[in-house]
Every structure is written in structure tokens, then in C-alpha cells.
Amino acid sequence: MSRNHRIRRVSLSVVAIVILSACTSGQQAPPQDEQVIPRAADGKPDFTGVWAGPGFAHTGSDTDTAQVRRYTEANMAPIKPGGKSLLNRSYTGNVRIDDPTAICLPNGLTRQIPSPYAQQWIQTPTQLVILYEYMHFFRVIPFGPPNRAHAPDVEPTYMGDSIAWWEDDTLVIDTVGLNEWLLDAYHPEDGGSRWHSDQMHLIERLRFTDPRNASYDVTLDDPVIFEKPWIEHWAMQLKPTWKILEFVCDDNDRCRTGNCTDTDVQKLAGP
Amino acid sequence: MKSLGAILAAISALLMVSPAVAHHSFATEYDRSKPVSVTGVVRKVEWRNPHIWFYVDVKDARGDVTTWGFSGAPPAFLMRQGISRDALKTGDVVKVDGFRARDGSNNASGGRVTFADGRSVFTASPEDVRPN
Hints:
The structure holds two protein chains of two kinds.
Chain A: H1 3-27, E1 49-52, H2 83-87, E2 88-90, H3 95-98, H4 109-112, E3 119-123, E4 127-132, E5 138-142, E6 161-167, E7 170-176, E8 181-182, E9 192-196, E10 201-210, E11 213-221, E12 230-238, H5 264-269
Antiparallel strand pairs in A: 1-3, 1-12, 2-9, 3-4, 4-5, 6-7, 7-10, 8-9, 10-11, 11-12
Chain B: H1 4-14, E1 30-46, E2 53-59, E3 65-71, H2 75-79, E4 93-101, E5 107-115, E6 120-121
Parallel strand pairs in B: 3-5
Antiparallel strand pairs in B: 1-2, 1-4, 2-3, 4-5, 5-6
């Protein structure tokens, strides 16, 4: 074999290796996160979509099973002296204390988060809007610098005053200005109800774990009841085929507090 | 189109979940110490919030008809399980087991529905007490 021929064979081999290498690298799965999670035009993770919140089984399919979850007692921080009677309210017979949702009063933010109904998130560069199906509540949450102060004149409400910021790819939502209200769906049949104080400070931290799922860590900082903040680790799942539905609590609430109203066919059948 | 069997299986699956809570507390409206069991013909289904209701005409030994009302799951819960309002139709013959409303009227939680051919399904909301 001539020297020129050997050089040509070596050159062709190098070219083949380079081409093969390029093809192989092109077949590698893109790294988790950067290539696959939804991202907005500004490069931030995009939480826009209809979500099955912590109140679902998260089947990964178009159908899902509603499962209300309560805050986990084992996760709670030690309770301050006198805090237990503020957290755990014994059954009173007064529905406004025992179960206000039974008369269509709001469930409040801490109970809304694990509600077994869908929620639609709409993210823009400047704000995040959350539409909750259950009782038609909404949150309009402005983005801004991390750890900034809330407005000084926040009026206490059931959903509170929320502000948001980004910590890398983690969405942080910080809420104050909550009414003293229900902590979760703890019911008379459970022995009473559970409440939080009007000093509750809630920090929600969301991060995509894959293109359809997000971790949802909620820090509950209620200095009136607990010695220190504590965290509930929840999850969310996107449901691309879902729409949020209409929910009118008063529409056909026929046996409110155990006093039933007969419907038309029962009246016709009556004496 | 889903078969009725698939729909009923989905209903059963829905109600196999551990008791949870949706719109309200069961105990504020129904009395778990007062179970009720009736057999009759479905007269009407109300697919409305906050919970579906269905009504069953029940004939006694003298031929007099009483129309019982039964509360079921919220429509959103059922729809997200793939269950439509056609799962329970006017004219179906059913046996319903539930718990009476606290006011003693002919209304109850619809804990379990058994069709004439023996198929047994639940229609109650996950939070509702279901008969054993």
C-alpha cells in the first residue's frame, strides 16, 4: 500500500469517527429539566395549565380520583403552650365553627390547596393567576424581587395577600393576611375542626420534577400556634385535557345542616 | 363509547378510596345511626352541584308511592372518573342503601345502589359513610 493510500484511509476513518460521534451524541436523551419541562418565553418554568392538586391520586392519565388530604400531624412542629386549643376546636354544634363549608362559607387558602377539585394556573412574566374550581376562588399573584415586603395595608381575607418570585427554577409564593380560619378538612366526625391563626405565614415552593409533575412544598409558619415553621410535602400533576368546571355551592344544596328541601318530584308525590 | 360495566367499575373504583372530604361534613347532614334501605324505580337524576341527587319511587304494600331523594358525589368527581350522567337513568330499578337526613324526611345519603341484575355500585361522595 502506498503512503498516499494509507493517509487517505486514515483520513476517512477519522471522518467516519467524527460523524459517528456526532450522530451518537444527537441520540442521547436531553438532560432532565432544561429541554423537557414547560418553559415560558422568558425562560422561566411555565406552570400554565390545569392541574390536579394534592387532592388527587395523580394517576398520570386523563381520569383521576379525588382524594382530600389533610395536613400530616407528624409533620407539624411542636405546639406552643395554649396553642392546642387554637388548633383543635372541639365539636360545638355551631356549623360556622364545626364545618363552615357546609353552609357554603369559604374553605380558605390552607384548605383550598389540597382541595379535591381542579385548578387552572395562568403565568405571565409579571403575575401568576390561579383559578380554583372549588367555590370559584382566585389568586392574582405579582412576581417581583425575592423576599420583598408585602404591602403594609393588607386587609385580612380568606385567600390572603400573595407575592411570588423565582429561586432558579423554583417558584416561590409567599402569603400573609389570612383570616383566622380552617386549617384543613378536619371534620366533626374526626372530633372537631382544625384552625390556623390570623398570623399564618404560608410559603409555597413549586418545582417541576418532570414535564407533567411538580413538587409542592408548603411551609406553614403560624407563630401563634407552633414553636417553629413546618413543611408539608405535596405534589401537583398537569392534566392537559381537563377544563375547570363550574361549581355553585348553593345550587342544589338540598339538605343543608340536615334540613332538607323536597324537590319537585317529591312534592308531586306528597299527600 | 364506554360500556355500562366499565362505567360501574369506575364508580366502584371511585368509592373504594378511603373516606375523604369534599364539600361538607357528612355528619352535619346525615345520621349514621339511621340506615335506610329502599327498592324502587329511578324517577329523576339531578346532575348538579354541590352533589348529584337522584330520586327513587318506592311503592309500599298498599300501593302507595313515596319518592325518596338520595345525595351522591359531586359531578366533578364523577366526570373526572369518566362517569357520565347516563350511569344512572330514569326507569332503572334499584335498591339503595344509605343513611337518613337528620330532619327525618325521605332524603338520605345514597351510599350504595344495587341494580335489578345484582350489580352493586356506590354513588355516594367519598366523604360519605357507606353501608357495610
